[in-house]
Amino acid sequence: MPSRNKLYFASDFHLGAGALGSSRAREDRIIRWLDSIKADAAELFLMGDVFDFWFEYKTVVPKGYIRFMGKLAELADAGVKLYLFKGNHDMWMFDYFEKELGATIVSNELKIERGGKKFFLHHGDGLGPGDRFYKLLKNFFRSGFCQWLFARLHPNFGVGIANYWSTKSRISNDKKDSKPGEQEWLVVFCREELKTNFYDYLIFGHRHKPLDIQITPDSRYINLGEWVNYNTYAVFDGLELKLEYFEKL
User: Staple 210 to which of 85, 217, 225, 240, CB 3.0 to 4.6 Å?
Assistant: First the structure.
């Protein structure tokens, strides 16, 4: 049996987004990927928008995804450390996965060091210049007041509203604009962040484009892509980080 020494990063599964392909088929594909990494994974970072919508009521969570969550439980029981990031689609993730799986829930950025390499990890939403309207909305949606109001809605009504808005996701832009320019907002953010802090790797989701861009001679920006069109993830083996494709479409 190989030793557990690898870090895996993935983002934007958008489980539940049926209009963009079969969510169940995507779930099965993700499970096959999780099976393929379970022997050597030490830590698994799921970096936001795992679900196309998620809200934890006090005693209710959205139905479905039971095979995926069962696989996460299997990994956790095998000793894999799990991290779940709040994305813009599943920002209302509270303590359910923490209590059930021992997962660490990450609300914003996570800075870690592994194998002598420094990582800056974030879903990617609300960073960089521009998009002021979304940044205001994000602050409101993450407020305790907004969460309290939404929790007052019956799940049938609240989840229905949320699923309607989720269909407007930028993921529907498919594979357009696959190479950002120098002024692309996450590239700008990386350049600004590296002026004051050094990281070997700055890893994000949210953009839905698998990207590996050299920002400085010693620092790379990695975007993890998504699992509707690409099935991409990153793996760090203790020496090098690579962006990989699973069952490439």
Answer: 225
Place of tokens 């692309």: 184
Backbone angles phi, psi at 174, to 5 degrees: 60, -125
Phi, psi for residue 199 in degrees, rounded to 5: -140, 140
**Secondary structure string (H, E, C) spanning 16-59:** CCHHHCCHHHHHHHHHHHHHHHCCCEEEEEECCCCECCCECCCC
Alpha carbon distance 36, 55 (integer Å): 29
Residue entry with tokens 């909305």? 137
| Both tokens assigned to 233 | 């993830």
Between the CA of residue 203 and those of 68, 111, 159, 234, what are the distances in Å?
23, 10, 30, 9
Q: Read out DSSP for 122-158?
A: ---TT-SS--HHHHHHHHHHTSHHHHHHHHTS-HHHH
